Amino acid sequence: MEQFALTDDQKAILDAVRRLVKEKVEPRAKEIDEKGEYPFDLKELFAEMGFLGADIPEEYGGQGQGLLTSCLITEEIAKACASSALIVAGQELGFTPLKIGGSEELKQKFLPKFASGEFIPAFGLTEPNAGSDAGGMSTKAVRDGDHWVLNGTKCFITNGGIADVYTIFAKTTPGEGVKGISAFLVEKDAPGLSIGKHENKMGIRGSLTTDVIMNDCRIPAAHQVGELGTGFGLAMATLDRTRPCVAAQALGIAEGALDFAVNYMKERKQFGKPIATFQGLQFMVAELATEIEAAKYLLYKAASIADAESKAGRLRLSSEAGKLSAMCKLKCGDVAMRVTTDAVQLCGGYGYIKEYPLERMMRDAKITQIYEGTQQVQRVVIGGHIFR
Ligand code: COS
Q1: pTM to 2 decimals?
Q2: 189: CA distance to ligand 1 center in Å?
Q3: How close is the Cα of 288 to the center of ligand 1, in Å?
Q4: Which of 11, 24, 179, 243 has the greatest number of C-beta atoms within 10 Å?
């Protein structure tokens, strides 16, 4: 489709990602999952290659390539290792509130560090009692002279413990619902900030997920992101732009899993011939490949439209763009789950054992149906855009 013809820059970036994935990511994927360790070595490589700042404007030290490019990078890495892909997607989620809603001073101060990878950002929205109902948060921020004082606990925070800066959403005017929420940048050494429980997860085991606790945590008043009371809108405007990154991660997992299964089917012989020759199995693969292709166009369309609107200076994306963003996350997440589950099936016992990557891919796929809004929340968002 003409609309998705990649630019020369995007093609060159993709070539570089593919080479790096083959040489450095794929050989590490199994170990990263087994040890449950964040791959700092790969983060450094991604930083050197400019992958972490692909969607940060050049004036702030990034590549200025846009969201679609960031999604392409994420997708490519996820074909081999979903945890490593989350290094790119997590960077995008972490820096987007500042990029779209921060003051010039804050952007100058932090965006170049996020672009170069010197700083890792994190996004602090979810709380133990405020998941899908993000507006039901109880973290509070109270003004005290030239400072804000934050109290509360955020949970399931990607990059928790290794992030240099957390974007924390907190109630500044209790009683005003989502209109009383504001956003703040909290640096890792802010007094009163501590890291709580580290989660032991089913998948994406090479990504760190923790509680982030604020106990009379003091930050400079200048670290407020956007106007007072605009924090919830900023969180939603961020998720409209970052759900495609999760979709890209999901799509990459699906592609990696199908690729593995297809190669296996060509080699594996039963009843005297490769199992790839059995029509029942070919039909399964044909359906999965079609699902992947459909999901891919939805993702690329959503990211392209979000890019065009961001370039035109929109903070809140149009209803069409918001709807497509939720749709691509819904579709790609479900495709990842279906493809990985069926890929395990196609490979039988070899799909189920830890020696091969499919069982990891199936575990990794599951999170894409949960984070950055569950598949149920995506339906709420899509329905809202259709009927509002
Ligand atoms: N962009 C900008 N602002 C938005 C917005 C968007 N896409 N969607 C909502 N807002 C702002 C608007 O100010 C809106 O008020 P108006 O509609 O009057 O303009 C306000 O937020 C309230 O919106 P809404 O009524 O839709 O809020 P709800 O509390 O009903 O929230 C859902 C709806 C469920 C969609 C929201 O809470 C959500 O996305 N939850 C999931 C959160 C999530 O993804 N968590 C994962 C965290 S990251 S791992």
Answers
A1: 0.98
A2: 30
A3: 33
A4: 243
